Model the fold of this input.
Amino acid sequence: MRPEVYQYNFDWMLWRTLEAASKVADGYDKEYRRMLPYIPYFRGIVEPFINLGDPGIAFFKLIDKYLKNIVSAHEQGKKIVMSTFCFSPTIFYAMDIVPVTLEVLTTLGSVMWKRGATEYMDFCVELGFTETSCSSQRGCLGAYLAGLGEEIDMLVINTAGICDTNANAFAFAKTFMDKPFYSLNYPASLTDPEANQYHRDDFKALIRFLEDQTGKKLDQDRLGKILEEVARQEAIVGEMEELQRLIPNPLPVTYNFLIYGGRFFFSGMPEYTGILEEMVKVVRQNAEKARSGISSGKEKLRAFMFYIDHYALNLQLWDFFDKHDISHIGSILSRSFKDDSPYVKGMEDVAYHIDATNLDTMIDSIAMINSRMPMVRSIRGPYDRPNMWLEESLALAKMYKADCLIYNGTPGCRNTWSNVKLIARDMEKAGYPTHIMYGDAFDDRVESWEATAARLDEFFTVRGLL
Amino acid sequence: MMEIFEEAASGITNRYITDWVNSGKKVIGYTCSFLPPEIFHAAGILPYRLRGITTESMEISDAYYGPYVCTFPKCLLQLAGEKKLSFLSGAVISTGCDAMRRLDECWRKTGEDYPGSIPDFFHYFDVPHKTDPHAIQWFENEIRKLIRKIETDYHVNITEENLKQSISLYNHGRMLLWEIEKQRSLKDAKISGTDAFSIAVAGTVMPREAFNDALEQLLPDLSRQKSNPANGNRRIMVAGSINDDIELIRLIENAGSTVVADNICFGIRSESDQVDMDDEPISALTRHYLSNSVCPRMFGAYRQRFDLLKAKIERAGVEGIILQNIRFCDLHGSENGLFERDFEKMGIPCLRLEREYGPLTETGRMKMRIEAFLERMA
Done:
């Protein structure tokens, strides 16, 4: 890593950047306009979010708070846990533990900084971690292994049995930093009684681990309140995702990023509910006017990303979609599968239920939430088994009237690269033009965004979609 | 005597498998050392650890697997597609790692496109990644499911008594293997690393009775044999990703070393590698096969594996370690980074060697790096 990169703490840099962004809209519009030329790269993120109005501005403020919590956690006497995006942070908030979620912080670096998080990715390799591992962890992880972040107190993941490269990154970090570690581990099946019992037992053991680490008992009242907040949030998201079925889709293109990003950062926090309430107002208005959420107001195509999105500088994937009048109707990260979400109809077995009646029902609920998180839910078993990747993707593609399906991931994703050709073939057979992107969602050195965009263009043209 | 083992270790099939199949008996292939072969043996079925050596192209497997995937499962799929595994009546795919567990789907789809390339009995065997009590329970359920499926599909009865006999036989085989391990790690070893590794690999593809008999004949011969002076050869341990290719070990030894120990999942594990005979057999198999956290697929158990390697180093007087991994094997690749850090600190030179699985297409490059490593040690 270049010596100058050592000079600044990763978490502080992110925090200060987002803190500045969160204040941009506080002044007069003229001040804001005069300021933009001074942030030639960062304006690519600032402008679209400010243009979203209250939800975008509030999103900045909430990420600012998330990051501030990290850098000040120890001053406040709180423990810090290193965790993963597909682990619901709800239990951490209930136990007053501050999460550092590797993938979402890598994403922040990738979309905000011209150099992305690549120097930190490479630093992992300097330490002996494989270059072929997933870039989503390597970015943030490299910074923490370099000591450029607040000290981590423990590591908690839920990707054993789901994603080797993810779990392996945390196992490496656990050894390297010599910190306590708990890994939830999932069986190949999702819905049978044995699997449900296992999810429950494993989560109870996790709670004991967290109690040992913090020296505090799980606060039942606090957990109940947070779960109720999660239920409120998911109800709003459910309404938006139901309206997303309309043609044209009334959701602004970046809303799906705000929805799942918000869930990974802030699930159960009341401020996130506030953002969602603002978002749903916009979506309702668009729906009433039969207006597309795309900037032009026109929808030419509906694309379903059946794995993850692409986080090149300035969220260029979303910008590309918006400029080409393509509705982004979600990815594997989008939907949470709460039992009252309208799209769950026909897939009830997969859904989770929130019941805050007593501690046992709450623990069951939170174990269910975690077992239904993206990836954890549908790439655990063979892809063509009931409820798994193929069935879920095709059901959602049909429900949301997708015109085409697109795969994007990272070369580190051993799991999906081992069967993406199979699922793409099945999707084509089902009548969906399907495109496999060969770049890296977090590292555009693998394939530049320009090359990725050219290939997307080619796909849309050759298949007669645009 | 060594020819028996070398022949069995050098090809996809061998004379024992041919005789076994010709006599109307069944063979089931399996993919991972976390699966107890005693179960198949107790059913009168020959357990066969799936191997990918002798693969000459990837034209079939590349149609199913993506590009960023380890070449070991790709080689298995290629051989299956070419019907070179047609002696199998069944296959069990374990969740050893992500690429390996997806062999389940890739092989099934290959079976649709290349009729006759997939055996009738095809089972997905889920293995936990930790050893907590609830994970042990889950693993035991998986073993019981597998037993029920074998009983149903093969019309056999796997009794407790049969299982105990099979466990006893396999324990005896492991004990004999440990004797080989002792011979190879002597100051003036009586058996080369290549031969010791051949024996271990042969044990995964030969009927256990024949394997034990052959070992019992070999061991007295070995102890009578004159010691093989080390001739200044460096004492090397090989660890890391899956390897069943004796040519890799031969390459390392031909470069001027003796492989006095290994920690590879086809190799010889440890003295304590015995299933408890006093316990109820399924429970004993469960605890034995899951609680040995010998593979980095068991996340968070680095310290156990480090201690295991350290014990092997001390016992065999290892002077340097070759930490190899197949490209895209992040589990071993990353752990090799940690081993390198910790063993180098202890003054034990390490070489990290990334390679492709299969015919040694990179022999020149690897030989040069190994020779440079041995020079560094000198």
